[in-house]
Amino acid sequence: MPVVLYRVDERLIHGQVVVGWGHELRPDRYIVVDDAIAESEWEQELYALGAPQGEVGFVSVADARDRLDAWATEAARTVLLTRDIASMRSLLDGRSAGVAVNLGGVHAGSDRTHALEYLYLTERDRMDLRELERQGAVVTARNLPDAQQVPLDTILAP
Amino acid sequence: MLFRSLLIQGAWNYGTMLGPGFAFTLLPVLRRVHAEDPAALASSIERHAEHFNAHPYLASVALGAVARMESDGADNETVRRFKTALRGPLGGLGDTLVWATWLPLVAVGALVLYWFGVPGWVATLTFVVVYNVGHLGLRAWGLRLGLEAGRDVGTRLTEADLGGWARRLQHLLVLGLGVLSGTILGAPDGLGSFGPVVAGLAVVGFVAGLVGGHRAWRPAAAVMVVVIALIGAWGILS
Amino acid sequence: MELFRLSMLGGLLGLDGTAVGQFMISRPLVAGWLAGWLAGVPELGATIGAILELYLLVSFPTGGARFPEGSTAAVVAVAVATPFGGPGAVALAVAMGLVWGQVGGWSVTVQRRVNGRLVQRLLEMGSSSGGLIRLHLVTILIDFLRGAVITSVGIGVGRFALGLVEAGWPLSKEFSVGALYMGAAVSLGILLHDLGGFRRRRVLFAAGLALGIVGARFL
Fold first, then answer.
1. What's the CATH code, domain A3-156?
2. Which single residue of A47, A151, A155, C78 has CA 20 to 30 Å from A114?
3. What is the ipTM of this complex?
């Protein structure tokens, strides 16, 4: 048992993920997939503080792509986190079939427009999400396990 | 800064949360750093007033570290990424250590004192003094830790093991909770003195809370209020 | 005059909950004793404060409108009970405190929305250090007035309501106060739930329980 959650959440390892999803999915480790953080030791220290129990890893997108198959077959239950949609798209490009992608929170910023209360997207994000879906991924938004699951068509509806 | 940080939630709101208070607390530092350049001062205030969230006491760790980084001339992007990375852990650790552990622990202790017959003012004063020794100690400790370590405060926070302290104090809290329940049940004018029906109902209530968690609170309070109101109404009518 | 002083207390303690300091003097135990002291009945204040503290052990300042505002609940309850001496005064006042504390909780939510709008305006006007300081003065002043007004209205409503029913209260004083512990027991259960449930540290809890029963009996 494999990767139990693919999540896009700019806050990465934080309360909603560790407490909310952690209680539901009982993961053994959290892997943050991000090129910048993979290079930055002090940021890793900070994010690791968010998950006092369980193993935490930080890898670049390229490394993560090499290890996806291994994670999928290992016994350890893995939660994969990216802080933006572009990283998730690069991570899953060409291997999205059947993967469930969870959008958990990207907040307002310049050139991002409102999609949901906790989700603001750029035009590029919208295209990336469509592309993931076209490749066979199931993209939905849900901030917490007991919240309503919003399908991609509703998210992208104008 | 320590005094200013007492107001960090002064403009708490659902959008930027602690952001404005963060900028307010940091003002003396920003003014000093940007003394020559009013435009840079304005833009740095604007940047720091943006969304930030953390526990109000532990926010002092971020305040201290950012003060250090700004004084050392760190670039804006690093400061932004630092605050983004730190807000989650500080919020989580603070909620666990302070709101879910230290506050109820000291409150339970004071209530036990009270039901053991200590005068009201002694129980109250004990609560205020003990609680705030921890509270102000934590703020001062956090501020100093941040000022000393700056960007690398993560290592120091890991070493401090606040989560471990919370777990240890929680053992004490469970013990205290037992003592408090026992005291209320066993005191001469406590629950046990009104016969098995009242004591039984209280045990039912306790189990409902134990199973239901926070969802049980409102219905329980509503039942108490309605029953009291009905008894009052029945009193005038009969 | 007494009403004025108690309303000021409600305003000041309301600030402690979120905006200023968080010294937790807004907790019901402290707020109740302080209100009692101001009204000349400190022990009555402590009794009501301790009971409400039990109810609100599970509520902390980040709770928003989910729980009553402890300071409002305690100050209103104590102020409402003070003029009455009958056997039902404490129980009725605690009920009034729970209800009005909820009103206080909602007013905190409204306050936070108003803060949001003021912050928005500050950002639109361009931030300056003067603007930031004024923002804090204004939000804190509004918060103080909010607490004071909610408290004084609550005291008025509560005293009127108790005036109607208090004289006819049919039960004994001891029983009426004791019955309040039944609701408080739910909060104790919730706190244990939050700490990981009964199973995780049952030995500790049972030891404490025994200690408490024995202690209360023989001390």
1. 3.40.35.10
2. A47
3. 0.92
